[in-house]
């Protein structure tokens, strides 16, 4: 089972280091091996993480969680980007017109939060 606090900690650590983190790394933070079952839990889990952290972080912190292949760029595949935009709508951001620009803004805000928490 994915652990909310461990996921927040892993995302916070990555943000403090100004780096992206993979879905598999989120699973490993909870001592859960990556599997199709865990993959199916990831979207609702990360939405819960975003909901929990939105006020404190000022960002959708799951913006920096990407596929292993995109750790260098922070790019989300079209399906993940659509899911991220849907999550934003459910969290009260409204309909996201430019999904890529919204993602980049949330990534920037998440890294700023990481820098603040690293120096605190």
TrEMBL record:
Organism lineage string: Bacteria, Pseudomonadati, Pseudomonadota, Alphaproteobacteria, Acetobacterales
Name this protein carries in UniProt: Uncharacterized protein
Species name: Belnapia rosea
